[in-house]
Amino acid sequence: MIKHLVASPVPRDKWHSVLANDPGALPEHAPEWVDAMEADGRYRDASRLYSFADGREVILPLVQRRGLAGVGGWLQSYPSGWGMGGLVGDDVDVDMARAVLHDLRRLGRQRVSIRPDPQRWNPWAEALDRNVVTIPRRAHVIDLAGGAEGAWNGLSKSARRGIRAAERQGVRIETGHSGALLGEYYSLFLTSVDRWAAHQHEPRMLAHARARRRDPLGKLQSMGRHLGENFTVTLAYVDGRPAAGSITLFAATAHDTRAAMDKELVGTTGAGELVQWTTLQMACERGCAEYHLGESGQSIALARFKEKFGAVPHDYAELRLDRLPWTRTDTTLRRAAKRILGFRDV
Predict the structure, then answer these.
(1) In the beta sheet, which residues pair with residue 59?
(2) Pick from 28, 25, 102: which is nearest to 62 by CA?
(3) Most exposed among 118, 134, 145, 269, judged by the fewest C-beta atoms under 10 Å?
């Protein structure tokens, strides 16, 4: 069904053209996102443009790991900590997904991984064969078809109580674009890492090392520079100090990511609920069709918090094409390390 592969990497003008015709594209599907990844220094653009016989075109945002970590040509759409990839373009169907998997398998790379948009999981699910390794995942998404009024009606009673409590207690909201407020946000993020480490029975130093490796401040600043006004940091202040915050990416849809909180400072102020409602309103004002709240895993508490805001769970999977049993080996080693540390997934 593939007529020919037009280009790899995909020229930016063509990428923007295909992106403009995709009403459900995620913010990280923009070429500027891959530019930020290249600026991070660990990845190079390996995106692929597919042209089909019926005239349709789709893009697979794809990056290749640089250095020794990329020996064997590891391709990812996207790496962990860089959001969701998958196909960009209108009317993506199972034949497209199957053709793309066939093309990627022909490359002969050691590993190719794809973490698609959960809303577009069905074509991939139907295209799977026994050679594709799947890693089950779950994400939450809010439908914004009803605008701000519909979003408010979709909130739970507890979410509305939190928002009203924050407004009564004078919780102050600030928003910054293109990387503004990242310094204060990052300190709050590391405070959250401390809390997560305690819950998970993970040594604090190890938790900080993992967080700084996965999400160094420079990486977030690179995102802000390349996405500009579509990269927003929202912070809630209690007694003049940052208490809750998040990063929101905007495009045809919105993607909320990396929520952070100082739980002791937040207390019963409702600061977390006010941050979420503020960003939801921004998404509605920008005309976003959906609001992605990202990965939830198997965390019941995280799922409950997201569902307070009208989010619906979507089960999907990350796809791996492995020449050798890389995924199985990696999973085994991680489980062994967690057992040694007494690590608890919560």
Answers:
(1) 49, 88
(2) 28
(3) 145
